[in-house]
């Protein structure tokens, strides 16, 4: 790093990745596996810009690249309908897996530290722009000195200041407690993916979510799909009701909590924002609009970027196919208008569609014929009416410019 008020990094690198979350570190991991790419990851220093620890979930088959960071996994899933009836879901050969961000970051950092052409820079990125021979990132180091990083490509995982225009935008917002109960209450083999035995909001839907870690420990969440998040007090009241009145857990202690907001939107997220500047992860459209799941799509996108840089081709291909996005746009609109009842819709899908096929559908890995069959197991009339309406709806800008739910 050279001296002066704004130094220039002179070590040279092929790729700069802005952001050390799931998408940034996943891309760094996949790029360095080839051994040909020099990678610099810019992570925010300790302080308010670093997010709190988070939980990421996904489903996968067989051994995975990040198994050393997996906290728990489940071979059986359950969905509880509003009437209390249970749908037992067998996702075999898939397993539902849970990662904690701290474990994931520690694992990838250790791998990058062993790679001769990878490094992590702690700095606050301010400006990402095209440069004369690629792109550059202007940063401020923790000691206040300026730093400019130059590379052939820059991949920016920071959320945009506002969501792009959309026809429909719902928010998946939640608060979860990591609880320890006085007596064994959980079956560590079974995860409750959706539990609709909670009071439903006037608009949208709500459900509980239970990921057991031991017979007396679990992550218990209250989640809503609606247009606006709640205050912390409202989430706490919903969790007290769910753990006490629905799950009847008895005496428990809350060891930690997490809270978040994920946009579920049919907005078009630009993946290329300059000649050599690209957006990745949720900022590049990796979040599946109808579910809020992101981690698996981030892995597909990261592998595709690494392959494209090695072989040529589209540098950041779309993380989801056109058919998947079109179907998600219809579902979001149907939920937002109230044409379909959310709890009945999701419970019915898990009851009528083999779980492995449904999860592959949510990953965009089903054939058109399989998707047609899944469509027949939804409320066909309301969905067809919505499908006919969606192409004619205007995309509207975000109504609250100052808020960014990403």
Characterization of the model:
The protein is of the alpha/beta class. It has nine helices and 19 strands. The protein has helices at residues 22-33, 101-113, 232-246, 295-311, 322-337, 342-352, 355-362, 368-375, 380-389, and strands at 6-8, 15-18, 39-43, 55-61, 70-74, 76-80, 86-89, 94-100, 118-122, 124-131, 134-140, 146-151, 153-156, 169-181, 190-195, 205-214, 217-226, 252-265, 277-279. Strand 2 (15-18), helix 1 and strand 3 (39-43) form a beta-alpha-beta unit. Helix 1 packs parallel to helix 4 (295-311) and helix 5 (322-337) packs across helix 9. The longest helix has 17 residues, at 295-311. It is globular, with a radius of gyration of 22 Å. The model is unreliable at 1-7 and 400-406 (pLDDT under 50).
Global outline: globular
Kindly provide the name of the CATH class of the largest domain: Alpha Beta
**Estimated share of beta-strand residues:** 25-35%
Gyration radius over CA: 22 Å
Enumerate the strands of the largest sheet in spatial order, edge to edge or round the barrel: 7-6-15-16-17-14-18
Number of discrete domains: 3
Give the CATH topology of the largest domain. FAD/NAD(P)-binding domain
The total beta strand count reads 19
What structural class do you assign from the helix and strand content? alpha/beta
User: H/E series, N to C?
Assistant: EEHEEEEEEHEEEEEEEEEHEEHHHHHH
Work out the helix count.
Answer: 9
Biggest sheet details = 7 strands, mixed
**Spans where pLDDT lies below 50 across 5 or more residues:** 1-7, 400-406
Distance separating the two termini: 33 Å
Please tell me the CATH architecture of the largest domain by its name. 3-Layer(bba) Sandwich
């Amino acid at each position: 790093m050279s001296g002066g008020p704004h130094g220039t990094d002179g070590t040279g690198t092929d790729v700069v990745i802005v952001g050390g979350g799931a998408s940034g570190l996943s891309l760094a991991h996949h790029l360095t596996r080839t051994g040909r790419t020099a990678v610099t990851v810019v992570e925010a220093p300790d302080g308010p810009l670093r997010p709190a620890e988070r939980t990421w979930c996904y489903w996968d088959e067989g051994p995975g690249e990040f198994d050393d960071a997996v906290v728990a996994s489940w071979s059986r899933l359950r969905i509880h309908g509003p009437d209390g009836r249970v749908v037992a879901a067998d996702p075999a050969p898939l397993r539902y897996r849970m990662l904690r961000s701290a474990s994931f970051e520690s694992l990838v950092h250790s791998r990058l530290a062993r790679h001769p052409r990878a490094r992590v820079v702690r700095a606050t990125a301010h400006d990402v722009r095209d440069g004369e021979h690629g792109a550059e990132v202007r940063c401020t180091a923790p000691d206040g000195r300026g730093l400019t990083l130059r590379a052939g490509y820059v991949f920016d995982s920071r959320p945009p200041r506002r969501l792009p225009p959309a026809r429909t935008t719902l928010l998946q917002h939640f608060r979860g407690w990591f609880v320890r109960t006085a007596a064994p209450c959980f079956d560590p083999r079974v995860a409750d993916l959706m539990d609709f035995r909670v009071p439903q909001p006037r608009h949208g839907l709500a459900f509980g979510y239970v990921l057991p870690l031991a017979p007396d420990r679990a992550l218990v969440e209250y989640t809503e799909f609606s247009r606006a998040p709640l205050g912390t007090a409202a989430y706490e009241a919903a969790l007290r009701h769910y753990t006490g009145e629905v799950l009847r857990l008895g005496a428990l202690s809350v060891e930690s909590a997490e809270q978040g907001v994920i946009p579920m939107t049919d907005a078009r997220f630009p993946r290329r924002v300059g000649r050599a500047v690209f957006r990745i992860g949720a900022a590049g459209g990796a979040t599946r609009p109808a579910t809020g799941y992101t981690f698996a799509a981030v892995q597909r996108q990261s592998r595709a970027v690494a392959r494209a840089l090695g072989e040529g081709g589209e540098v950041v291909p779309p993380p989801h196919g056109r058919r998947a996005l079109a179907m998600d746009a219809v579902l979001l609109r149907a939920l937002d208008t109230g044409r379909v009842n959310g709890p009945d819709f999701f419970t019915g899908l898990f009851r009528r569609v083999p779980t492995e096929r449904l999860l592959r559908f949510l990953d965009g890995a089903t054939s058109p014929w399989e998707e047609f069959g899944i469509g027949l197991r939804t409320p066909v009339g309301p969905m067809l009416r919505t499908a006919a309406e969606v192409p004619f709806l205007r995309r509207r800008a975000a109504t609250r410019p100052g808020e960014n739910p990403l």
